[in-house]
Design goal:
Structural class: alpha+beta
Distance between the termini: 34 Å
Number of strands: 5
Strand order of the largest sheet: 3-4-5
Radius of gyration: 13 Å
Helix content: 25-40%
Oligomer: single chain
Shape: globular
Order of helices and strands: EEHEHEHEH
Amino acid sequence: MTGEITLTGQVLPIGGVREKILAAQRAGLKRVILPRENEHDLDELPAETKRELEFVLVDSIGEVFDAAFDGRAPAHARPAIVRRDPQAATSA
């Protein structure tokens, strides 16, 4: 994980998202937790990467912990799990 968290637990956007995600894919990871503000960076990824990885978008450190440790978010949180299927975008 890389990134920055404020004193109040807010997750801030990061740089180099494409490179970090591709490195995670090469390492065999299947889930990537990203700041919600970096969602637009997912558009720059190869189609294969979007199919193979699960992206969890978060706003707070609590959401990070929930996604990292048990893979689920509590009912009161609102992290978005994004599965991008490039073919679905072209058929819609």
